[in-house]
């Protein structure tokens, strides 16, 4: 089994030998076994705190390049033209340490019926889509975030972090 110990420096969206599709929760794990689209099992042993982003290239010890794709997952989506209502929803979801994908006029989070009920209680409608999840990295996260057109991701197919106190 090949082992990957590093991200390819500045290799976002470059040519790769293989592809691995991972949901957001899997993209946060530093140590895991993954299976690529070509059926190869790779042991990933990345530095703690690494969050893989769509388009990142992971390198194995022998130079094999694996592109990371954000897998589609079930998301709850809140859409509104009322910015104040969306801010209220973002505030209450953030108070529960929910990772949020933020786009103009919408919020998305990993589907949770309890959170959906809370948001509906704030007077907003909640729908579900299956799409890649690209949440905000967070103010205390050390890695620079890559830009994604999250708004189009949600329409094409129609969450937990730590705080320092």
Write up what this structure looks like.
- There is one protein chain.
- The protein is an alpha+beta fold and 165 residues long.
- The protein has two domains: 2-70, Urease metallochaperone UreE, N-terminal domain (HSP40/DNAj peptide-binding domain), CATH 2.60.260.20; 72-156, 2-Layer Sandwich (Alpha-Beta Plaits).
- Helix content is 20%, strand content 33%.
- It is built from four helices and ten strands; from the N terminus they run E-E-H-E-E-E-E-E-H-E-E-H-E-H.
- It has helices at 24-27, 83-95, 113-121, 150-156; strands at 2-7, 18-22, 31-35, 41-45, 57-60, 65-70, 72-79, 101-103, 106-110, 126-132.
- The protein has a six-stranded mixed sheet.
- A hairpin with a 4-residue loop joins strand 5 and strand 6.
- The protein is elongated and about 55 Å long.
- Residues 143-152 and 155-165 have low confidence and may be disordered.
